[in-house]
Amino acid sequence: MLDLAPDNSLLRFLASQGHEVYQIDWGTPGPADRDQDVAAHVTELLLPLVERFSDGPVFVGYCLGGTMAIAAASLMSCGALATIAAPWYFDAYPEEFRTQTTTTWQANQSACDRLGLMPMEVLQGGFWSLDPRRTIAKYADFADLSQDDPKFQSFLLLEDWVNEGAPLTYAAGHELIEQFYGANFPGNGRWRVGGRIIDPGALSCPSLAIASTTDRLVPYGATPPATEGLSLDLGHVGMVVGRAAPDRLWKPLSAWLSEQGA
Known about the structure:
By secondary structure, the protein is α/β, with parallel strands linked by helices. It has helices at residues 10-16, 38-50, 64-75, 95-115, 121-130, 132-143, 150-163, 170-181, 238-241, 245-259; strands at 3-5, 8-9, 58-62, 80-84, 117-118, 168-169, 192-193, 196-197, 207-212, 228-232. It starts with a strand and ends with a helix.
């Protein structure tokens, strides 16, 4: 999503503004990785990577990547932290979404346990339930598009990104659904990473939380605390790759990063 296409890329824009940018690729887990939960992705994958850099990094995390970036920033010295549509207070999600997600997980948990993985489809049902009419409408609108219409290719790029994601490890799926969506561990001060309770309000570095009041996938009320905030009225995807994204998000984020010396 952050590098969707050569002409629609937050990463390429930031690089063009003089920022040194690296994107984390979490790879594709296999059954042998079954016990690697969300916290372990931070301590075993992310931190060993960024610790190779001589200077303290500036983290920018989108969606759950922002939640994980908060944990990383809590466990090492970093220059600054920016989150984009990152969930922290998971009890801000609608009750029907949390119920649907839990029900789907319970129906598929045994199969996920045998696989050692949680396919993304287990989560997708919950997200579709947030606005089923909108899900149907977008496919109906796509059916009316000509293949020569630029919106046709943009739609395919977005749908590929949404539906071709790698599975989660079994432990990450379990932690996400039962401890995050189910029990709000991060927002309740119960999420422990690397032996430490993670508290974004206790970070010593400057922080920026970017969130949208119209985001259907990460409610505005789920936004983590930060020293600064940027509120938008764009969708979860639109704030990053929509037509208004360059002016509303890309440029303000770049300016903030420059203020932090990044």
